[in-house]
Amino acid sequence: MERGSGTPRAELALKTLAADLTPDDRLRRTLEQSLVFAHATAAALYTPDETAGHLALTESVGVPRTLYGLRDTYPLTAPSP
Q1: Which of 31, 49, 59, 80 is paired with 5 by a 20 to 30 Å CA distance?
Q2: 24-56 tens-digit pLDDT
Q3: What order do you get walking across the sheet with 54-62 strand by strand?
Q4: Which helix (H) or strand (E) is 74 found in, with range?
């Protein structure tokens, strides 16, 4: 295929995220797609829990996150959450 012709890879990838998936499955599939496009070995999503004052791990994919020392939570007051 010639560069620039056809449907872009990202558009095809987004179409694979079928509408009949649950929100949790869609999140996991989106993170898996990020592994492919970024040529990464792991991806993690942290969301703020402002009542507890930290970022909490919502989902992770790829190699075990402990391999990179990713924790379950990070304080929001840290210099680089």
Answers
A1: 31
A2: 788 888 888 888 888 889 999 999 987 888 999
A3: 42-49, 54-62, 73-75
A4: strand 73-75
Least confident of 12-21, 24-33, 64-73: 12-21
| Per-residue confidence (pLDDT) for residue 12, from 0 to 100 | 62
Phi, psi of 40 (to 5 degrees): -95, 165
How far is the C-alpha of 68 from the C-alpha of 78, rounded, in Å?
18
Residue 27 and residue 21: Cα distance in Å, rounded?
Answer: 9
Neighbours of 50 (CB within 10 A): 8
- Is the CB of residue 58 less than 8 Å from the CB of residue 27? yes
